[in-house]
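Attaching the record inline, Q. Sequence:
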Amino acid sequence: MSGHSKWHNIQGRKNAQDAKRGKVFQKLSREIYMAAKSGGPDPSGNPTLRMVMDKARAANMPKTNIERAIKKAEGNSDEHYDEITYEGYAPGGVAVLVEALTDNKNRTASDVRVAFTRNGGSLGATGSVAYMFDRKGYIVIDRSTTDADEDQVLLDVMDAGGDDLETSDDAFEIYTDPKQFTAVRDALEKAGYKLANAELTMIPQNTTPVPDDKKEQFAHLIDALEDNDDVSNVYTAADDE
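Structure, as predicted:
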């Protein structure tokens, strides 16, 4: 791996989103609904649903909200959401991928375009930046929750089928092939590790530093995108150092 560490920034975003918890739950409900609608309501036989449910629990989403979204999918609801990915550049030329789940493609496309143009970025054509990212499974073990040292964790990760391990003072970050993500996650849980985070994500092959005079604009763009009700995930190639 390139050494690109995500955990510190994920924690920061989660803290920032605490004030927007209602909106986060709304987005997660939509993801749960779509996962259950397409793959069935039983998470043991629907890895996508299980992953989204884990994500919801990590966000402290109430169990009743999760169950309500699944029951809605089991019913006769005709709601439908399209999965769309937008690509563009943030201030400083930083590549950005935006994943959305929307019931109105025209509205979402317009909102995403406005977010880019008003904050010094530019929306690109399909394929303009996607090739700069790799889909990876991403798992985090908080070091405060385990007595295992780096050698032991690395051994367990390799045995589980993981690709790479990065170690910091507060976390073990594990990367996997997306097809092996579920197996690796389950194996690590079976080995007794408590997972602080487990998701499929997009990892930039290379990172770009955000110029000092563009950092405020960059932050405003990411905030505007993440604040959009239809946007599920925002990935950037920004150098986090």
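The mean pLDDT is 90. The domain at 81-240 is CATH 3.30.70.980 (Alpha-Beta Plaits).

More tomorrow.
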